[in-house]
Amino acid sequence: MGICCGGLGWGGMGAVGPLLSLVFFAGVVGVLGLGAVWAIRQIGRGGMATNGAPRPVGEPLEIARRRLAAGEITTEEFEEIRDRLQG
Predict the structure, then answer these.
(1) Domain range spanning residue 84?
(2) Residue 2 within a domain
(3) For 20-74, what is each residue's pLDDT tens digit?
């Protein structure tokens, strides 16, 4: 009846081995959880555009209104977009 694993038990690492295993397992589960949350949010907002910016959601005229309010387009550009959309 010899002493297994140098007499330290738990795979030769003493009480630290199971603790390190638990920390590693919790880290893996945490990373997988964060990845799942990120994926669900991306699906919920319609994914990402090719440049990494979120794709706009909503009616085209509403998007034009938001762009006008943000100063991205001028009033003339907004009116041109509105006229095109309304036919």
Answers:
(1) 56-87
(2) no
(3) 888 999 999 999 999 999 888 877 765 555 565 655 555 888 889 999 999 999 9
Please report which confidence band the pLDDT of residue 16 belongs to, taking 50, 70 and 90 as the band edges: confident
Residues 64 and 46 in one domain: no
Residue 38 C-alpha from the chain's centroid = 3
Residue type, 25: F
Is the residue at 6 inside a domain? no
The pTM for the full model equals: 0.41
CA angle 22, 23, 29 (to 5 degrees): 90
Query: Given 3-state DSSP classes, what are the helix, strand and coil percentages for the chain, each rounded to the nearest 5?
Result: 70, 0, 30
